[in-house]
């Protein structure tokens, strides 16, 4: 059903009308289980066999057409897979470059601090070295002066010796000769003393020169260390920048490639509702490819059955005479496989399953789909689970719990006696809760309750039914799929109750439905589907209403003789109608029953009732009475109705 919105007005476009030649759409699903239904399946198989022999036109090229469609879809999926992988890589690269930028900036600051400390120490060392150099230069200057003085003194002595040599006395001048020798001796001693001092000064001067050279070298090494440290730091930063540029180039290349292939991608940064409503990676084109491939697959199945039509006949004959093959149960299993090939989906209740599959062993069934698993007792599903290779469980533990035939206290005694925990044997255990407990993916509703793979987008009810359900049972986690509003009200009708039934409420409901019948006579047209459900928490209230509404020809009956459009909440689990009336019943004398029906600890009844209604939901009950039981379920329901309708519902 397609809905469009125009300037605040909601316009509903009628559903597409089927093609006139679409008389049959195939045996995709049939009801099995009990003997009567299985006989119907055998009859259907005979018709299929007759059709394949006498009416079907063989077309072996369906295989090639299927492969063409299959490859086309695979190519599409592979392309989307590459896009998804590129997108994932892009996200990783973006995180990596962000991390590297932060890391590089941190490293740059660390290097700056290290270099600053290194430079300060280096400068201090250089200052110290320069001071030592200055001291040595001072000493060298002083020593140089001393050496020059000694050289001058040596020169003076040499000149004195030369002058004395010129005055050397003759051989016979004994007194003068003695004086000459004495003077020469004195000059020699002075010269030797000066030479020794000169040697000492030259040695010390050489040491000072060596110290000067060493200090100059150390100063140069300090400068080189500073330069090397600067180059080393620059190299580290340049290498980091190079890595970031390489990542940036990759990111740009991936971004450009992804921009050329626009696809709705998974965006975890979207708002919660938008994220839940999004359909990442696949679009309408993919859905068309899926549909085309499915149609071709049906054609392939039909052609395959045509080519093996003898096996169909053998299958239903074997299935009809299973007692003859009890020693060869593999034959029975193969017969089932052919039946299942003709009819892909065969439905059954758990109660009838054991009869239908009594001769099928472990792992005989390919797939088992358990619907309304929140209502299914674990022990009822054991046989079906045992016989199945793959199992999918769908249900809602926040709706109606399994119906027990034993008192919970008896179950507790049995569990204690046989060592079975409450997880498997209690009034709250279901197939759904057990599968949830082992589900790898899921959601913690609270600290102790784990929900397996919750499907949050709600597509049945309009508001405010959706909001009531979301508030009382799902913690606000569900997401509404449509903005088109529905209708809902609480009709405050009081009266005395007999076994919880209030006559005034029945009379009021009768008049409301009469008004609706005048607007749409199809409500009482037995050839049309149910447009209205009447629901009550209590069996007697439902029974009395069915009798009351028989007066206006509203009540419909199923094959079992029970009303099909009026009943307790339990009988409507999994069903839906455009309009739902919830008749609460009760008066002050039956407050306990009222508290049980919609008390804080039991939101399921209101949840199921509200979510059966696609368009309109109406509550009929003593509002004062139900407000007085101090129930969070009633409080939240009133709040939602008040917000939706205004102050009249406060």
Main β-sheet, spatial strand arrangement: 11-17-16-14-15
What best-fitting shape do the alpha-carbon axes yield?
Answer: elongated
**Rg from Cα:** 50 Å
Uncertain regions: pLDDT < 50 for 5+ in a row? 1-24
Structural class: alpha/beta
How many distinct helices?
A: 18
The largest β sheet comes out as: 5 strands, parallel
Distance between the termini: 34 Å
Topology, number of strands: 17
Beta-strand content estimate = 5-15%
Helix content: 55-70%
Tell me, rounded to a whole number, the average pLDDT: 87
Walk me through the structure.
By secondary structure, the protein is α/β, with parallel strands linked by helices. It is 58% helix and 11% strand. It contains 18 helices and 17 strands. The chain has helices at residues 35-54, 62-166, 174-260, 272-277, 284-307, 309-320, 329-342, 350-356, 378-386, 408-418, 431-438, 465-473, 503-519, 539-550, 591-598, 604-612, 623-628, 632-645, and strands at residues 3-6, 9-12, 29-31, 345-347, 365-370, 388-393, 442-444, 450-452, 457-458, 479-480, 487-492, 497-498, 501-502, 532-536, 566-568, 577-583, 613-621. A 5-stranded parallel sheet has the order 11-17-16-14-15, with helices on both faces. Strands 1-2 form a two-stranded antiparallel sheet. Helix 6 packs across helix 7 (329-342) and helix 8 (350-356) runs parallel beside helix 9 (378-386).
């Amino acid at each position: 059903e397609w809905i469009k919105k125009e300037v605040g007005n909601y316009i509903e476009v009628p559903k597409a009308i089927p093609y006139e030649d679409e008389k049959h759409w195939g045996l995709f699903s049939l009801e099995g289980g009990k003997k009567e239904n299985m006989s119907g399946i055998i009859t259907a198989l005979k018709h299929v066999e007759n059709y394949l022999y006498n009416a079907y036109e063989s077309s072996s090229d369906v295989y090639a057409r299927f492969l063409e469609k299959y490859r086309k879809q695979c190519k599409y999926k592979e392309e989307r897979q590459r896009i998804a992988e590129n997108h994932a890589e892009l996200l990783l690269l973006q995180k990596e470059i962000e991390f590297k930028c932060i890391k590089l900036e941190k490293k740059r600051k660390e290097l700056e601090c290290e270099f600053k400390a290194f430079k300060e120490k280096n400068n201090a060392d250089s200052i110290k070295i320069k001071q030592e150099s200055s001291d040595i230069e001072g000493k060298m200057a002083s020593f140089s002066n001393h050496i020059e003085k000694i050289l001058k003194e040596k020169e003076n002595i040499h000149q004195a010796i030369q002058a004395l040599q010129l005055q050397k006395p003759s051989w016979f001048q004994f007194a003068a000769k003695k004086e000459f020798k004495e003077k020469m001796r004195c000059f020699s001693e002075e010269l030797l003393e000066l030479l020794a001092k000169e040697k000492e000064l030259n040695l010390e001067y050489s040491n000072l020169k060596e110290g000067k050279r060493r200090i100059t070298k150390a100063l140069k090494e300090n400068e080189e260390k500073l330069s090397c440290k600067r180059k080393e730091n620059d190299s580290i930063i340049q290498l980091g920048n190079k890595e970031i540029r390489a990542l940036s180039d990759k990111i740009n290349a991936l971004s450009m490639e992804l921009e050329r292939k626009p696809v709705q991608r998974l965006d975890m940064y979207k708002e919660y509702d938008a994220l839940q409503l999004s359909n990442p990676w696949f679009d309408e084109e993919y859905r068309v490819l899926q549909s085309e491939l499915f149609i071709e697959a049906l054609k392939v199945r039909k052609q395959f059955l045509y080519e093996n039509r003898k096996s169909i006949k053998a299958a239903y004959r074997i299935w009809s005479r299973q007692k003859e093959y009890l020693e060869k149960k593999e034959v029975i299993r193969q017969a089932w496989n052919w039946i299942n090939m003709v009819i892909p989906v065969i439905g059954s209740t758990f109660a009838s399953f054991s009869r239908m599959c009594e001769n099928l062993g472990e792992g005989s069934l390919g797939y088992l789909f358990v619907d309304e698993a929140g209502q299914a007792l674990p022990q009822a599903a054991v046989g079906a689970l045992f016989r199945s290779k793959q199992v999918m469980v769908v249900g809602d533990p926040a709706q109606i719990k399994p119906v027990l035939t034993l008192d919970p206290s008896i179950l507790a005694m049995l569990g204690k006696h046989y060592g079975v925990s409450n997880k498997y044997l209690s009034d709250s255990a279901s197939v759904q809760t057990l599968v949830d407990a082992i589900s790898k993916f899921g959601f913690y509703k609270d600290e102790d309750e784990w929900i397996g793979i919750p499907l949050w987008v709600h597509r049945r009810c309009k508001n405010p039914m959706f909001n009531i359900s979301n508030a009382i049972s799902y913690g606000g986690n569900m997401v509404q799929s449509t903005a088109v509003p529905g209708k809902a009200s609480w009709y405050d009708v009081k009266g005395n109750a007999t076994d919880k039934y209030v006559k005034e409420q029945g009379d009021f409901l009768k008049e409301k439905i009469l008004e609706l019948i005048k607007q749409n006579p199809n409500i009482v047209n037995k050839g049309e589907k149910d447009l209205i459900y009447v629901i009550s928490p209590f069996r007697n209230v439902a029974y009395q209403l069915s009798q009351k509404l028989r007066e206006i020809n509203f009540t419909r009956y199923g094959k079992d003789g029970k009303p099909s459009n009026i009943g307790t909440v339990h009988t409507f689990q999994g069903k839906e109608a455009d309009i739902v009336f919830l008749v609460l019943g009760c008066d002050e004398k039956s407050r306990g029953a009222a508290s049980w029906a919609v008390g804080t600890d039991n939101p399921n009844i209101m949840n199921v009732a509200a979510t059966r209604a696609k368009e309109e939901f109406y509550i009929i009950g003593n509002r004062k009475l139900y407000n007085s039981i101090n129930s969070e379920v009633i409080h939240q329901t009133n709040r939602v109705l008040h917000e939706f309708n205004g102050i009249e519902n406060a």
